[in-house]
Model the fold of this input.
Amino acid sequence: MKGPLFYAKILLFGEYGIIKDSKGLAIPYNSYQGALKMSENPSDVAKKSNQNLLKYYKYLSDLKTDLVHFRLDELKRDIDGGMYFDSSIPQGYGVGSSGALVASIYDKYADDKITVLENLTRDKLLNLKHIFSLMESFFHGKSSGLDPLNSYLSLPILINSKDHVEPTGIPSQKQGKGAVFLLDSEITGETEPMVNIFMNKMKNEGFRRMLNEDFAKYTDACIDDFLHGNVKSLFGNVKNLSKVVLSNFKPMIPMAFHQIWQQGIETNAYYLKLCGSGGGGYILGFTEDYEKAKDLLKNYKLELVYRF
Done:
């Protein structure tokens, strides 16, 4: 048995903002993927994954919802038979490792599942997002359901608000000098503590005002620019967003990266932003000249995501 592949995802814009109902844009990232597999001679990693699937099975067994029904007996039988999730998606890196697992379990074991092939109405998408939110809460304590949705549909998703998500098209890549890239912090981040820090900050009126005014304004502008291919305007808005994040989300940026974050803003060679909840994992970069950015960041591991 080998299940279909489910890909990693990158939230280009909207981290934290989507918790508070502003816009977001997520795209599939096909460099990493995962699939459910069986093994006669499991490795230690496969055994650990199998044990985690058993815990997940228990969580799904206790889930009280009318939105979805799982064939739990079949899932338990497969887990007992040694099933595991074979994944190249790095965990704690903000690229949706748990989302791909959730998508694969839903795909294989949900009855009357909503599929990519049918007409995806707004209601169906919201239903899916809600189901995935419940399923992924096992991993993070609180989940928007967006990561599994992106992985399951393998389409760019535009989040207009909590109750309005839609698949979207993004401009095709060009062979230009500009790029979106990932910078590897080589530190594992954990979502839950970062979200808790954010929720505590939300008690502060000044922080809430910054989020509603500056953060949401620049995030929405970045999304509009990206979707419409307005590259010049995009970089101006990404720079402003990068500044806002550095000033207000410092606990989510590993200390070792504060200086190179500032360097990007001062030199205009690249701009950094959070990729997911932060605290480690990947940091997302935008540059109008990828070669120049690579040179300035030569001590770090970079991965290309998209070309302008």
Notes: DSSP finds ten helices and nine strands in the chain. The mean pLDDT is 93. Strands lie at 6-13, 24-37, 84-87, 157-161, 164-167, 179-184, 271-274, 282-287, 302-307. Residues 178 and 308 are 5 Å apart (CA to CA).
